[in-house]
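Task: sequence in, structure out. Protein: CIC11C00000004091.
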Amino acid sequence: MQEQNILIDQLEDQLIDHPDASTRQQLKESSYDETFQKKLNERANQLLSGNKWGSGDDNTGAYLQFLVTKPILDYLYSDLAPLHQELSEWFTSSDYSIIGLRDLATKCSLLPDSLREFDLTTPSEELDALTYAVLGSYGSTSSAQDQLVNISENCRQIISSGLHHIAIDLLKSCFHQCNVAMESGSVSMLSGSFASNYFKLLTVVYFLTNVSLTSNVSPDFVDHIEKSDLLQAAVEFIDKWNQYPSPVSRIRNVLLITWKLILLEFGDHAHMEEVDKYVAERHDIKNKDRKDLSNNKLTCSHLDYFTFRENLMDKYPLYSDKLASRPQELHSSTSDREANFMAVSTYSNSLSNLLEMPRTNKSHTVLGQLPIQTVHIATPVPSPPSTPSDFMSGGEKIRKLYHVNQGMPFVYPSGDNQEIPEAILEASDLLENAVYESYSIKRSWEERRRFMAQERGNVDQYSEVEEPNNIEEEILNAEDPHHESEIHTLRRIEKFYSATLTHLHGLVEVLLGVIKSNKFDFNLKNAEQEFDPDTAFSSRFGGSGTLTNKVQLAILHQLELVLLKEIALKASSAILNLLMKWFKISHVIKYQYFTSLLFDQQYFSVFVDLLGCSFNNTELQDSEEFNKGTAPYDILTSQNKLMNPAINIPQFEFFNNCNGKVPSVGPIELINKTPIGKLPHTTDENNQNFVHITKFNENFCFILTNLLNVTNKIMLKNISQRIFVFNETKCTDLLKVVLLNYINDEFRIPILKIFKKLIPYQGRKWRAINMDVISLIYLHLKLSLKDDWLSGKDLECDFNNSFDQEIALRSLLQFYNMRKYPSQMLYLGYSLAFDNIPQVEYDESLYS
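Result:
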């Protein structure tokens, strides 16, 4: 067996230096090349069918050289967790006394017939009965499953009876009273009854919202949520809390309810796809499906196509004449489409030209300085000089550059009576038919057209002027019974953006503050030891049972605080991700404005700090004694926020406290003890080895997926300033850890998109070391007809224009918001002033 398992690097030695008897016989019958190829085929057949990856000699290690282990993370992104988890995450251990969990079971038994408005500073029996009902009437249940069934049924009854109307209105009243108290500094004057009623109303609306998301209920609940503007009131309340923070506001609960209200009013990712298809259909987008990975037809962007055309016309000046001789239909359609290209900056000095700059060969910093072709092939070439060169006599070697300037006309003939090579015309047709369209691009062009008209001063774009064929107004005002849900969603987003434009900055600041607060500084190993009787500090030094219980209770509260921060981060990341995606569907300028708010709040630095604290953190790792003998990289990949078990405290769990089944404190597991390399392996039919990671922190996977998508979306295409800022955070090593050690499309796709934007600005050494990442980009992302992102960038030009690009983008964003929402922008300090503009009088006599 050992003679058959020949290593590939030994084949050459066996053939040339030390051939055995069988090899000498083969050499007599055939040549060296044929014999070597035969040996390679034998080895390949051995690896393909031999010994099933593990029945060879372990000491040789031959079978391990071709064994590639792929760690697959079995995680699937979902907008919502199971209902029992979503409801349990609402409460903390201290909330049960505020809501009166024990008293509600004794005072309330039936669902109230009505709920009247009352003074929020005094207790209300009707509100207590309503709260007890939405909590599942737990006094009459014996298990968590029975209580969960009661919660769903009671919430449906409450919605069908219309009791939710008063509850929602009372919650808005609570928001208003808290806002007034925070502004006046009289939060301490709010009574305990108000705090209790406020939390009960939050709980009622939160439970009703979650049940509505997970089951079919009456649409009246969603309609009343929309009419009452509860989501807008919650965002305004968060902004107010940012200015006047107060513990009475219960900001963690408000963030959770805001997240669920966004899902309820706008929809989840499945509904998002339906709305996206509807908007694409209304904008007459024909080739949207060509952007999918499953579609093998390659595409290119409008900017790539425009750059290609400019390069061709520079190199073949007769190319434009060739276009003029084409059929009129093709020529007119092409001209109409090119008229909308944002890249056309030849005839305009608009500031918006910086948003999409065509990087032609003629304008390239390096390629544009190459020598031109000055001698035609038909021109006689002068004889070489008769004197020898300096190099032949020992002088300095003359270095010649054989590249020519591709931005200059091509001086050599291409064929008989053929002015332009046929291959060039075919390439032009290929790219022209592969241009990818999207409604975001069309909307950007339309807004840029208005912006340029305002710059020129010939039309006042700020005034309300009715435009024919305004597709945006047609979509919002459409009456289509087949797409009623999609139209309602777009109207809600427009209404939400208009109402919260002045509060989005405060919302972003609060959400990023939640991310900043998740700095993990609690040692999990010490916590684990205190719950193990053999290693607990009080047990080792003769402490009493009472002392041990106090220590364990204090640690449980510390762990609960860590868990609450994680849940708040979960809600914050979901809000950012959902708002960004819904704004993009509503209008691309809304989405770009929201990304600008995040960029201004240093989102990149906050995200990278969270990533480093979550993976490269000794507080999340086991003791050095336990990890002795384990490679540092294995510790990094196996003991982190993602791989460590999720914190679970059954003593504080909602359903356990309702049913009185609180378990006793016992040993807990907070740190992952099994490295990825020691997990069970499986081998497929191609002899590839897989490791399926099934135990992980699903909450952190949800958080990481959202934040990675947000990071990718903030780095807008053709806006290089943001890429430079993110590159300065030195984030590539952390992203590579996630990319290569946890194979999952929810992580891989956004990370590869981020790398695709970063790699052009990395050095040659970095690219040589990280060729595996570059290969993954080509393997798993949609290819383009012009994939020159790896080496085709004009780095110097990008750097010089990066700041100007950001300024141009901000100008366009300000113009859009001022044009569409002048009153909201006035609140932010922006106003239109035409007093200092001189009036130009038209004199007909001058033109007669």
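Residues 100-265 form one domain.
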